[in-house]
Amino acid sequence: MSGYVSILGVPFSRKTLDGTVACLAEQINKENSGLFHLITANPEITLASQSDPLLQEIIRSADLIVPDGIGIVLAAKRKGEPVPERVTGYDLLLRLLAQGNEQGWSFYFLGTDERTSVQAAEQIVRSYPQVKLAGRHHGFFSAEDEPGIIADIWKSKPDVLILAMGAPYSDKWLHKHRRELEGVKLAFGVGGSLDVISGKVKPAPAIWKKLNLEWAHRLLFAPVAKGQKSRWRRQAALPKFVYRTMIRKGN
Fold it and tell me: What burial letters (b/e) apply to 155-185, b meaning 16+ CB within 10 Å?
């Protein structure tokens, strides 16, 4: 079995959640390893990459892309090259925080609004007291603020940089500033995970997760940040993804 499956040209990892965490932990524990860019891609991002040259470039340069969405799992199965399970940004964040608590890893959190950022950081410090909080900053900053934020991240040199500015913006921002952030060992986007950790958004109940319906729970109950597209508008991409990957031949 190959290590990845291509869905609409995006090479998705076929590692399990456990295997992905082990891979990332190895990267974090390396000395002078350089920045490892992980992308957690769902059907919306996969479809968007078809008409976005910059996103295509980012995908080609990424170190690992994981299937963050049941649609990717179903598309891989339809292709006859199944992935074992979804690997979501939220699950990876919690697993890395738990392991970081044991090994003393440092984290920097960039994104969401100021109040949620503060509350998420406070909750993480309470739940994972041995994790080092290298720093944090909300995601509603201007171009004039960027040099100071980048300097703060570079100075603190976190093991893990968590981006919560929405996809694909988080990955585009990281790609733009990658050379300036070489002191970071691992960076990836987590969508609205900090909203959940802070308590602003309630996590999907177990039955929704079991039925792979977290996306529907978010659609119905999670607030949308100012400046972001309506989740109902974003879900309009899903029928196109289904057609491209499961109905139309040759994909």
Answer: ebebbbbbbbbbbbebbbbbbebbeebeebb
Kindly state the DSSP code that residue 64 receives in the 8-state scheme. E
pLDDT, tens digit (0-9, with 9 covering 90-100), for 158-203 = 999 999 999 999 999 999 999 999 899 999 999 999 999 999 987 7
Instruction: Find tokens 């080609």 and name the residue.
Output: 60
CA gap 152, 135 in Å, rounded = 8
Task: Identify the helix (H) or strand (E) that includes residue 226.
Answer: none
Half-sphere exposure of 175 (CA within 13 A, CB side): 18
Query: Rounded to whole angstroms, what are the CA distances from 12 to 8, 67, 205, 228?
Result: 10, 6, 27, 26
What token pair was written down for 206?
């177990």
- Stated length of the chain: 251
Give pLDDT tens digits for 81-137: 999 999 999 999 999 999 999 999 999 999 999 999 999 999 999 999 999 999 999
Amino acid occupying residue 141: F
